[in-house]
Amino acid sequence: MAVLITLISGCSSSEQIALYDDLEQRGGAIYYQDALYTGIVIHKDSQQRIKAKGYLRDGLLQGEVVSYDIYARVTRTEHFKDGKPHGVLTQFYEDGTIEEQGQFEDGQAVGKWLLYYKSGALARESFHKNDRPEGKWTYFNEDGTIKEIRTYKNGQQI
Question: By C-alpha distance, which of 33, 18, 28 is closest to 61?
Fold first, then answer.
């Protein structure tokens, strides 16, 4: 194993850190040496660059997970509760501007989602209910004018 679980300096004595490759996924949960893992997990690429960092509690993602590109720039932040997406998800362009932002509740996309052009102009405003398209979806040209409007009910375009 490249790195065994070690203690993080400055954290409580029970706070651990592990590489994702040293953990095992079974039945939707993450284990370390046959025990549900609790602690910080770091996922690295083949060049040992950090791809993502998050926290597991009793083998399930909990709290914020941050993903990085090969230059250590944040590409995505998302939040989890008991292993399911729960809270704000934000996807970033290379320059750090927001590409997309939306909300999850109990693993399902809900509420308003916004998609942006690289320029920062709004590209789409959409709504979700129970992980399905719902209501008015408005698509914009980069100059801010409306390109198209679609309406959804129960996940179906009407």
Answer: 28
